[in-house]
Amino acid sequence: MCRCPDLGSVLLFVYTVKAGGAPAFSKNRQVFASLFEGVDEGVRWCLTNAPDVGKDVYIIDNPVTKDGWVLPENEAGTQVACGLLIVGPSEPPFFPPNQLWIITPVD
After folding, report:
1. What is this structure's pTM?
2. Does residue 67 lie in a domain region?
3. Looking at residue 33, what is its pLDDT?
4. Which of 8, 22, 24, 98 has its CA 20 to 30 A from that of 39?
């Protein structure tokens, strides 16, 4: 578990986020998932629910570096970036839409 300082004393769980079975990692300030066998650069990510925005809406950040997932452009095929998250000083904290991710369970 990790504590994200921007969210006070909320306890959070860390996860390995995967795409096509490959763990997601950050490199050169971008998020990747390597589909090559033997590459294990997976990072544990903190998934923080933002219930005031929506039921399945999350902020994704690295609990060690505090860098998080950011969509730099709102276009299909845009590479996800990994950088400093902007947090608005409010209660609950405000996060820009390009830092919010919809995660839904697979049936």
Report:
1. 0.80
2. yes
3. 86
4. 98
Q: How far apart are CA 20 and CA 50, in angstroms?
A: 25
Q: Looking at the 3D structure of the chain, how many domains does it have?
A: 1
In CATH, what number is assigned to the domain containing residue 85?
Answer: 2.80.10.50
Between CA 5 and CA 84, with CA 78 as vertex, the angle to 5 degrees is 20
Q: Does residue 9 lie within any of the structural domains? A: yes
107: in domain:
no
Q: Looking at residue 14, what is its pLDDT?
A: 85
Structural domain span for residue 76: 2-102
Instruction: Give per-10-residue mean pLDDT for the chain (107 aa).
Output: 46 77 88 73 83 90 92 86 92 90 82
**Alpha carbons 94 and 77: distance in angstroms, whole number:** 26
Asked whether residue 71 is assigned to any structural domain, the reply reads yes
Q: 81: which strand partners?
A: 30, 70
